[in-house]
Design a protein that fits this description.
CATH class: Mainly Alpha
Helix content: 55-70%
Number of strands: 0
CATH topology: AhpD-like
Order of helices and strands: HHHHHHHHHH
Distance between the termini: 19 Å
Shape: globular
Strand content: under 5%
Length: 183
Amino acid sequence: MPLLRCLPKNASLADLRSRFADLLDGLRPYGHRLMRGPSPLQPGERELIAAYVSAVNSCRYCYGSHSRVAQAFGVNEHILTSALDDIDLAPVEPRLKPILRYVRKLTETPARMTEADAAAVYAAGWDDEALLHAIAVCAYFNNMNRLVEGAGIVGTSDDHSLAAQRLVQNGYLGADGRGSKTA
């Protein structure tokens, strides 16, 4: 049930974007560049981070959608669920584990980030650009998680699948490729 009175029952992110396009559509070009543009992280890795951060935040809509997008980019569902349970035992590429640890800590206790957290990412072979991209994905999804949960958007499994399909097909700009009101 949405928490904003202007949204319909069982509102989706598309409904929120449609109602508040002047505020929210500006996020779409940035999100598209971040998630589909040039990066040391592959799109599937970025979607894994998005789903992981959303799960840490207990954001049902974003986790439901982005876990499916990550799967479409080749990330096994078991990798994500096991990473949430225990990153050390998860079948995640060893090089990605420090990044997932970093974004989890950044999500849960941002004021406690230390040089050691970054050093672990560097020791895994990543550079400053990769770390910044991971931080930016984390920040973007912390923002989106709070918009979605704050507005009371939960969605159904079908909603998550539809959103994921749109993201896989069109990226973050929407069907028109410009960031307009399409989901």
